[in-house]
Design a protein that fits this description.
Number of domains: 1
Distance between the termini: 34 Å
Structural class: mainly alpha
Number of strands: 2
Order of helices and strands: HHHHHEEHHH
Largest sheet: 2 strands, antiparallel
Number of helices: 8
Strand content: under 5%
Radius of gyration: 16 Å
Strand order of the largest sheet: 1-2
Helix content: over 70%
Length: 209
């Protein structure tokens, strides 16, 4: 019953976002990141009411749904951005991939929130305040304010993770991890950061926490 509720909740979020985007002609990047933040943050807490195997199966199911939606342009709001990206596909993979790296629920939360919150807010702030401080990495536009937003939000997430674990992480380690994640977010072009950053954070937290 829980897994059915989860699927329905995600589906309703996608439908509501799609309808809102179609009726308000909103900015494509903002619409993508809204669903990225809401669904991604919801997914991050799945280990608290779903088993690891259930999350893996849901990851596979969502990967199939995203592929079908991308091909047939069903949920156009999350595919309408003009720059080339496979971010939604990589994120669906990351949801399941991280479960093979850690069995710590809080590590999973911290890893997934790096992309749902840190990356999502970085994109929103970057769209609003980034046009005057842009730079390019492998042909893809980035912004100084967006990258700084990612690092700051990443640090907050890691600090909360440290508070909820028996093994505290030092402030220097938090800063280092967040900075490295920010670098990886910059290098993970075409949406590959959605896979690389959660795996990186989950792996490193598994080692030091």
């Amino acid at each position: 019953m829980v897994i059915i509720t989860v699927v329905i909740a995600v589906f309703l979020l996608l439908v509501c976002n799609e309808l809102w985007w179609r009726h308000h002609n909103s900015h494509s990047e903002l619409s993508r990141k809204f669903i990225h933040i809401t669904v991604g943050s919801f997914v991050a807490f799945w280990p608290f009411f779903l088993s690891w195997n259930q999350i893996r199966w849901l990851s596979l199911a969502f990967l199939i749904v995203v592929a079908i939606s991308r091909y047939f342009q069903i949920f156009r709001a999350i595919h309408s951005v003009t720059r080339p990206t496979w971010g939604e596909v990589y994120f669906a993979v990351a949801v399941g991939a991280v479960t093979f790296i850690t069995n710590n629920k809080w590590v999973y939360v911290a890893a997934l929130l790096q992309m749902s919150l840190a990356d999502g807010l970085a994109a929103i702030i970057g769209v609003r305040y980034g046009p005057t401080n842009r730079y390019h990495v492998l042909g893809q536009a980035k912004s100084v304010v967006g990258t700084l937003t990612f690092i700051i939000v990443s640090m907050v997430i890691l600090a909360v993770f440290s508070h909820n674990n028996i093994y505290a992480i030092t402030g220097m380690a938090i800063f280092g991890l967040a900075t490295l994640a920010g670098v990886l977010e910059n290098l993970g072009v075409f949406g590959l950061d959605n896979l690389l950053v959660p795996i990186f954070i989950a792996t490193l937290l598994g080692i030091i926490a």
